[in-house]
Amino acid sequence: MRTLRNSLVAGEIEADQAAAREWLKGFGPSTLPKKSCEISFSRSSGPGGQNVNKVNSKAMLRLPLKDLLPSVPNLLHDQIRASPYYAEKSDALVIQADSNRKQSDNVDACFMKLQDLILAAGRSSIKGETSPEQAERVKRLYECPYQYRTP
Fold first, then answer.
1. What pTM was estimated for this model as a whole?
2. Other CB atoms closer than 10 Å to residue 23's CB: what's the count?
3. What is the pLDDT of residues 17-27, one digit of tens each?
């Protein structure tokens, strides 16, 4: 009974992995939930002369996880929450960019950071697909110790 339950759970995990792999293949900049993002601007800091003091070029993107997580596979949720961009009190991702002089470039940089975060979470959470040859080798390794045992 226990092995049947374990094999069912293993089958579900493999199905989740396969679905997440497919989702990750189709993921790109166009699939980011941009409508759910709140973008605000403020004055940047650091060197830059009068431009830094006058222009609100620093972009801050805030994306509540309640809007992001439904569109992302469950396997990625823990990695996203563990990211340095996660703000626990507001349960949101907060991403800043102030490396450029233009607001639009900093907004694009925020979305690139968000995309990189999701891709990195996918790479670390989703296992690669096992080739049939590798699966056969593993199967033979598991069978080998039991061949030579006598009851």
1. 0.74
2. 17
3. 888 888 888 88
